[in-house]
Amino acid sequence: MSSLYDVIPPAPSKGVSTRRTTMNVNGTSQTLEVEPRLLLADALRQALGLTGTHKGCDTSNCGACTVLFDGRPAKSCTMLAVQADGHNVETVEGLANASELHPIQEGFKQEHGLQCGYCTPGMMMTAKALLERNPNPTEDEVRWALSGNLCRCTGYQNIVKSVLWAAKKMREQDQEA
Amino acid sequence: MAPLDELKIGGMGASRRRVEDNRFIRGKGNYVDDIVLPAMLHMQILRSPVAHAKIKSIDTSAAWEVPGVRLVLTGETMAARNLAWMPTLSYDTQAVLATDKVRFQGQEVAAVIADDPYIAQDACDKIVVEYEQLPAIVNPIQAQKVDAPLIRDDKENQASNKIFDWEIGDKAATDQAFADADVVSKLDLHYPRSHPSPLETCGSIADFDRATGKLTVYMTSQAPHIVRAAVAMVAELPEHMVRIVSPDLGGGFGNKVPIYPGYVVSILASILTERPVKWIESNSENLISTGFGRDVYLEGELALRKDGKILGMRMKTISDHGAFYADAQPTKFKIGLMHSTFACYDIPTAHLVSEGFYTNKAPGGVAYRCSFRVTEAMFFQERMVHAAANDLGMDQAEFRKVNLVGDDMFPYRTAFGFLTDSGQYQKCLDVGLKAIGYDTFKQEQEEARKRGKLLGIGISTMTEPLGAGNSREYDIIGIKMFDSAELRVHMTGKALLRTGAKSQGQGHETTWSQIVAHELGIPADDIVVEEGDTDSAPFGMGTYASRSTPVAGAAVAMVSRKIRAKARKIAAHLLEVSEEDIEWELGRFYVRGNEERGVTIQDCALAAYSNIPDGLEPGLENTAYYDPPNLTWPFAAYLCKVEVDAESGVWDVLNFVAVDDCGVRINPMIVEGQVMGGLTEAYAMANMQYITFDEEGNCIGSNYMDYLLPTAWETPGFELHEVVTPCPHHPIGAKGVGECATVAGPAAFVNAVMSAIEHTGVRNVDMPLMPNRVYEALKTGKDVSGMPPVLGD
Asked: Which residues of A touch B293 (CB under 8 A)?
């Protein structure tokens, strides 16, 4: 199944006007011709092949599609791709580098913060934004920050632990640096 | 030689970190919607906006005109190919695309296949359907009325809206027990309709290859092999030309067991267009049209002796199955395993009567994180037990202790004929009582009440039947409920394991390897697990009803033992002794009396391909099919402490203690994760998670703004404890666990809230216990029953 992650741009309908949109995704500048109505989540998934951003609901409730938009969590299923023109978008695929996981990814694995994995990318992106503005959150602060992201498998207790695990690791790394 | 440390090689009992996480945390999971095939088309479905109506006409001409549209399908085009209707898993029929009538809001009416999903949606919006609306039936009470409109007028010999009458137990003996009773405790309850709602919705990609005649369908299915059989029958394709691939699933919880119209339409669309066709439903479509759970009304009665002994139990259930009877459950049991109710209590006699009805609601009755209606059975049980203890003026814990089956009574035949085989029920309850501080609670409650605070404690204890079959009793559409595992040990001692189960988040890739590690001493990291592809996995009945570990897990142990038996012959050959002189320790055979002389399982694997003894087949691969002798019977004792705010009816969980005995735990970390997840769904059910309908049959709960799921903010913390009573018949002593918390949990929450407010005289508030309902009960001292009313604008 080598075609699995092939990049297939969505075909704009004939006679439909498109907009040239340039966004920085995970540090790389990407220019796309998109229909103005194309959702950001669909642009990431279909045009760029970044399928780690999941679509769960149609109503901005579940948060599976959460990406960082100029560093802040945003639900990409209710944003248009054209709104990202000139902006920075970070997705789950940008968390790890070739050799090393992000501490949040490690935390989710160590503390069993995921089961089916569908909410996980959105949870991790939201957690990343939280830890960037609050490196030492309380359990309540983590729960509040994650309250825009639904999980149906874990009951959240281990997700909270995962984020606290990552926070500790990141503080330790900062001290070493 | 020092023996292998089982925990170090990731064997049984190791909280091994999950293998599947490596891809999920990188965003490299492979869910159906992530799969892209060359030249793939996209399908959208047009659904009925009304609950009950005749279809007068469908005009698709404008849809065909939309640029990029390749195909438009209606009931008529399906009917021309004998595909307008399909069989359900309960021997009923279900409309694929409506021809004559629509019977629930959200029913599939037409489909558009186009170059991209946006275009397909545009074209759906251009299809004009003329409906002649009929009165809608939205609950089984309406459905029973003599003048109720007939929903299933498509069926011959269907004169009413009743689907089935079913009964079990000894009526005469039970009537006698009630005649002899000192006290009869009655309770009427409703378990509201709920939706499993996995975050990933249902979807499929059908890919028919005209050149080879092969149909491949990537599909969100918890039971791909059942789907293969069904597709072969429905679409009249030879079974060897049908391949179902269930890739990573974003949760299932029973929602992904049934076969939905969208799958069937996408298959026909691919056959007609000769291109892959992807169909991914939206969250709203998932909530309004796919398998719901529950929706059962109960009239319950217990015959009691003054000293607390239960003499008999009577139940009548009336269930709402929606427009098509599509419950996925064993054939013999029309209302699932409802009769497993009261299995943990020693009750001389019981009688259950069940009636099922059609309504103008979506079909389903799926086992939402439960083993075929067991959730309803145990909720009814524990609410009835709670009310009965109060009616007798007995302490809740004491009343349960009088009636729980004792450790020395196993094997125990329940009043409805199940055979429970093991457990330490009293011990589990005692662990829970101690952990929550039950001894001092009454005093604490009294004192709090003086300060105007309402505290309550709720207990829920139950054993449930997990892991169907055995195949004598359990089948789905005639297919016996066994399961399978295939193990291939390669020459370097690494291995590939495949099973007929299908993980949806349970972590099979991690735990199955641990069972092999336990049986063979091959490190878990040296074993890769594959599931979900019917072309490569051995036949199995899939994952639901907590049957993976009880059935497929047992098959994994059994196939490992077959491999070990062959390896023993090879070891004897390598060690130049007879097989009888060989001893086994984890990962190694040695010569009896000379422990130093031995060969590892890896040595045997290499020899299986390079130095095989005369007369022995080469290779080290095998398959096992496992038909369990009985169900497994885990036990749960859950205790919940709440505080109810008298001014608002809002209740907070102060403490929740869960004691689970699921036998031997393969991976404790994963077990605990499952328990916490299940408890959260139980909390949701008790609190907020219900789907209701207005009188016209409009679904109120068609999105996450109306259908409330708990977030990290509301969800309480849980304190977990364990007791281990190994399953006597399972090869590694394990029992099912994934559903215990969803099953036993809701009653713990509800009993706790009732305990806080029943001094006002109220006996019952039906779920969901929303603050306004609790407040009403507190102020009036009267029961609050049925679904919450639909509020107008």
From this structure: none
CATH of B371-466+630-780, one of 3.30.70.270, 3.30.365.10, 3.30.930.10, 1.10.1200.10: 3.30.365.10
Interface test with A, best of B15, B17, B25 (most A CBs within 10 A): B25
Residue range B524-545: average pLDDT?
Answer: 96
Q: What is the pLDDT of residue B793?
A: 54
Q: Which domains are delineated in chain A?
A: 2-94 (3.10.20.30), 103-176 (1.10.150.120)
Please give the pLDDT value at position A6.
Answer: 37
CA distance A154 to chain B (A): 4
**Interchain contact A78–B (C-beta under 8 A):** no
A146 residue type, one letter: L
Contact between A128 and A102 (Cβ < 8 Å): yes
For chain B, give the longest Cα–Cα distance.
86
Strand ordering across the sheet containing B128-133: B101-102, B53-59, B128-133
- The ipTM (two decimal places) reads 0.96
Candidate CATH numbers 1.20.120.1760, 2.60.120.10, 3.90.1170.50, 3.40.50.2000; the one for domain B35-134+201-249+256-289: 3.90.1170.50
At B756, the pLDDT band (50, 70, 90 cuts) reads very high
Residues of B involved in catalysis: 222, 369-370, 739
Q: Which residues of B touch A112 (CB under 8 A)?
A: 17-18, 669-670, 672-673
Identify the burial level of B411 via C-beta atoms within 10 angstroms of its C-beta, where 0-12 means exposed, 13-18 middle and 19 or more buried.
Answer: exposed
B35 pLDDT higher than 70: yes
Least CB–CB distance from A158: residue in B29, B676, B681: B676
Burial status of residue A172 (CB atoms within 10 A of its CB: 0-12, 13-18, 19 or more): exposed
- Average pLDDT, rounded, for chain A: 92
